[in-house]
């Protein structure tokens, strides 16, 4: 599968980028000691005054580099690329981490979504009086937000919040699969090529990539990634440390004929054979569990 150069550098942890101790703007901004440029706002002022200000969030382009700094240069040359020493300091400060989560909530609301659980990453549609349909429409037609989402996901990974990435990705996948929302060619291309690869956890990246492949092939296999599947995947990770979903198969053991039993075995083998290299199936009576796992050590 094609991996864009910026994504590969992110996955490789930017091997050619050297930390500059003199760069501290991102740390100072998230410590509420520095105003972002050119908007001249502190992080707390943005959280307090810009939440729900959709026109402002849409038309202004300089704030996103400050809210979600990454180790790459952006289009706002008054911002600074994130430095390794800043990452270490910011990750160790619970106040800063909470502010980053608040920034994530602000942008989710802008996109018509809400963070239900910061622990699991579970995302849902924004609730009334918010208009999620209008926000989804804006996301569909404003493609510059696709670049913003890539930046957001990279930043969350850098800050030790990568658990939130799967929650976002699987929410969007459920909307596409079960409700035919956010299902345009542009969003699907950005999601499949960029967003879904903004995961340094190889097992989760493989698991989500396989689910995306199955959803994109739904015309052939009839697969639907439901809200129940989405919540089950995150619940399984909370319990086991790995994303996983259980795909139940209908079977009446008391009245199953030999022909039905053989068909059921064929279904189980098909599901098992369809798993990616980094996933595995556990076959039990009447069900298959699809779960991510770390790659084998060599």
Unreliable stretches:
250-289, 294-298
End-to-end separation in angstroms reads 22 Å
**Major sheet, described briefly?**
3 strands, antiparallel
Count of discrete domains: 1
Number of helices: 15
Describe it for me?
- With 298 residues, this protein is mainly alpha-helical.
- It has one domain.
- The protein is 52% helix and 8% strand.
- The chain is built from 15 helices and 5 strands.
- The chain has helices at residues 5-11, 25-30, 43-50, 54-59, 64-67, 84-91, 94-110, 132-141, 144-158, 163-179, 185-193, 202-216, 218-221, 227-240, 258-273; strands at residues 113-115, 123-125, 244-248, 279-284, 287-292.
- The strands form 2 sheets. It has a 3-stranded antiparallel sheet with strand order 3-5-4. Strands 1-2 form a two-stranded antiparallel sheet.
- Helix 10 runs parallel beside helix 12 and helix 10 runs antiparallel to helix 14 (227-240).
- The longest helix is centred in the middle third of the chain and has 17 residues, at 94-110.
- 33% of the residues are buried.
- Residues 241-271 are annotated as: Disordered.
- Residues 23-210 form the Opioid growth factor receptor (OGFr) conserved domain.
- Belongs to the opioid growth factor receptor family.
Write a brief caption for the model.
The chain is mainly alpha-helical.
Topology at a glance:
Elements: H1 5-11, H2 25-30, H3 43-50, H4 54-59, H5 64-67, H6 84-91, H7 94-110, E1 113-115, E2 123-125, H8 132-141, H9 144-158, H10 163-179, H11 185-193, H12 202-216, H13 218-221, H14 227-240, E3 244-248, H15 258-273, E4 279-284, E5 287-292
Antiparallel strand pairs: 1-2, 3-5, 4-5
